Structure to design on (103 residues):
């Protein structure tokens, strides 16, 4: 036999889960031109965007390196690994730029 349920204090667990999911885990919206975090200015060329991406990656690598120098152990190694991946992405973009410009 089920224990009696005090309707004043007990919540239906499924209803409570749905309510919490509704407020705490909303369905993600699909990206559209109206809800993007940021966009490029009209007229920005792919070359300009690529050059800016290279500069952003350079800054990210420098930030990771500076952070890693103040860490120890596995946190330091993880941060240096992140820096290495950033440098590899930057190198790929720089290589693509060199192929496009014929350098």
């Amino acid at each position: 036999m089920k224990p009696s349920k005090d309707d004043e204090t007990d919540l239906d667990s499924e209803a409570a889960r749905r309510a919490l999911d509704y407020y705490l885990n909303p369905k993600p919206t699909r990206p559209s031109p109206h809800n993007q975090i940021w966009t490029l200015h009209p007229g920005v060329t792919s070359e300009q965007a690529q050059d800016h991406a290279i500069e952003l990656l350079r800054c990210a690598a420098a930030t990771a390196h500076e952070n890693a120098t103040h860490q120890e152990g596995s946190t330091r190694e993880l941060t240096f690994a992140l820096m290495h991946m950033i440098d590899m992405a930057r190198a790929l973009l720089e290589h693509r730029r060199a192929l496009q410009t014929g350098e």
Notes: Residues 45-103 form one domain.
